[in-house]
Amino acid sequence: xxxxxxxxxxxxxxxxxxxxxxxxxxxxxxxxxxxxxxxxxxxxxxxxxxxxxxxxxxxxxxxxxxxxxxxxxxxxxxxxxxxxxxxxxxxxxxxxxxxxxxxxxxxxxxxxxxxxxxxxxxxxxxxxxxxxxxxxxxxxxxxxxxxxxxxxxxxxxxxxxxxxxxxxxxxxxxxxxxxxxxxxxxxxxxxxxxxxxxxxxxxxxxxxxxxxxxxxxxxxxxxxxxxxxxxxxxxxxxxxxxxxxxxxxxxxxxxxxxxxxxxxxxxxxxxxxxxxxxxxxxxxxxxxxxxxxxxxxxxxxxxxxxxxxxxxxxxxxxxxxxxxxxxxxxxxxxxxxxxxxxxxxxxxxxxxxxxxxxxxxxxxxxxxxxxxxxxxxxxxxxxxxxxxxxxxxxxxxxxxxxxxxxxxxxxxxxxxxxxxxxxxxxxxxxxxxxxxxxxxxxxxxxxxxxxxxxxxxxxxxxxxxxxxxxxxxxxxxxxxxxxxxxxxxxxxxxxxxxxxxxxxxxxxxxxxxxxxxxxxxxxxxxxxxxxxxxxxxxxxxxxxxxxxxxxxxxxxxxxxx
Length: 561
Hints:
Layout: H1 2-25, E1 43-46, E2 50-51, H2 59-74, E3 80-81, H3 84-87, H4 97-104, E4 108-117, E5 120-129, E6 135-144, H5 148-163, H6 170-177, H7 184-198, H8 206-223, H9 228-240, H10 244-257, H11 262-275, H12 278-291, H13 296-308, H14 312-325, H15 330-343, H16 347-360, H17 367-375, H18 379-389, H19 396-409, H20 413-430, H21 438-450, H22 454-474, H23 479-491, H24 495-508, H25 513-516, H26 530-555
Parallel strand pairs: 1-3, 1-4, 2-4
Antiparallel strand pairs: 4-5, 5-6
Helix pairs in contact: 1-16, 2-5, 2-7, 7-8, 7-9, 8-9, 9-10, 9-11, 10-11, 11-12, 11-13, 12-13, 13-14, 14-15, 15-16, 17-18, 17-19, 18-19, 19-20, 20-21, 21-22, 21-23, 22-23, 23-24, 24-26
C-alpha cells in the first residue's frame, strides 16, 4: 500500500513538473482555451438511466432507453446533444448536476430510471436545469412491454426539444416519430443483443459471447423479417469484428428497408473508408450527418477523411462539432486542429491547440509541438523544449525520433548517428514498437552520406528509391510519396527529377513538411535554385489562401476557433 502511495506521489510530481515546464514554454495568451467556451441554451446530456429493478440483468433495458433517447435527440439539428461516450463517466455518479453541466458544457441534463416488476415496467424521467439544479419537469411511464413504448420514446424526445425551445423541422419530427418495428419483443431482443455484444471484449470466451449476441439479433429478425434495425445490428456487429463483406450484405438490407438508418450509413461509410474508396465513404457519412447532425462517429470519421485529404476547409467544421458533442474527444480533436493549422502554416493557431493538448495530456505527446518549431526553423527552441521535457517522461519512442530530426536539421551529423543507433535499440529493449520507419531510414542515409560513408548510404537510398517507385506506381496522387522521391533524388544530386516530384507534392497537398523543406538539409543543394524557390513560394501561396479562407469562415461564424 505504501509503495503504491509513493508511486502515486512521484507520478503526480512528475506530471506537475511537466505541466509547469509546458506552461513556461507556451503562450500565456492561450492558457484559457476551453474555459471561455459559452454554454448554449439548447445543449443537453442524457445521463445513463439507473436500473431500479431487483434484477441487475435489466441493465440492458436502461441502456437501450438511454440510447434511443440520445439517438432521437441527435436528429434535431437545432440541439447540441452530447454523445453516449461522454456521459458514461457519470454512470455511477457522485457529482451533482451543476458540476456535470459545467464539465460537459450543457445547459440541461435528462436523467431517468427503469424499474421492472413482473412484466410491468416503470420509467421515470426528469429534465434538469444545470445552472440552478431545478427540475423543469418529471414524468413516468407505466406499462407492460408493448409497442406503446415507441410512442413514449418519441414523445419524450419531442418534449425535451420543446422544453429547450429547439426548432423541430417536419422531417426531423417524422424521423423521431417513426417506429422501428411493430413488435416490442423484437426491439427488446436487439437491446439484449447489443448489451451481450459489448461484453465479448471483457470475456474469457469472446467467441461464445459474440455468438449469443448474433443469435439474439437473428431471433429478432425471425419475429420481424422487415426490421431494418435488426439487419443493421447484424451488419454493425460484423463491421465491428472486421468482416466487411458480411457487414455490407446486412447493412445494404437495412438501408433497403429503411433509407434513413443512420447507423447503417455510418458503418458503410467507415467500411468504404477502410477499403480506400474515399468518395463513397464521404457520401455515406454525409448522409448520416444529414439525418443525425449530432452523431459523434460520423463527424469523427468525416474529420479524419478530410484530414487525410488535406481539405481543411471541409474538415474543420466536423472537428469543431466533434469537440462540442463529445468532450472526451478533446484530446484527439484539439491535437487534430493543431496539426490542421500546422499543415497550412497558421502557426499561432497551431500553437494554441497543441498547447492545450500538451498541458492536459503531457505524457507522450511532445512531437507535435517540436514539429511546430521545426516548421518555422526554430530548432534551438525545439531542442531546448525536448531537453527540458524528455528526461521527465518515459517516452523514448517519441522523444528520440524527434531529437533525431532536430539534430539532423542543424546538420549535427555525428550526434544524429549516435541518436539513430540508440533509437534503433532503445524501443526494442523497452518493449515499444520498432521505430525504424521508411522516412527515418531515408534521412539516416543522408547522415551517412554527409559522414563520408557513401557505400552504406547508397545502399539505403537505392532500396528506398525502389520501394517508393513501387508505391507511387500504385498511388501516384499521394503528396507524401512524391515528397519522399523528391528527397531521394536530392540525395542523389538529381536536381531535375527532385524538382519534378517536389512540384507534384505541392500540387497534391498541403503537407506541413513542405514548410520544413527550406530548412531541410536534404535539399541543401537546391536551396538557392530559382525553380526550387518558386515551388516553395507556390506552396506558401496555397497555404496562405487556405488561411485566408479559414479566417473568412470564422468571421462568418461558420466555425468558432
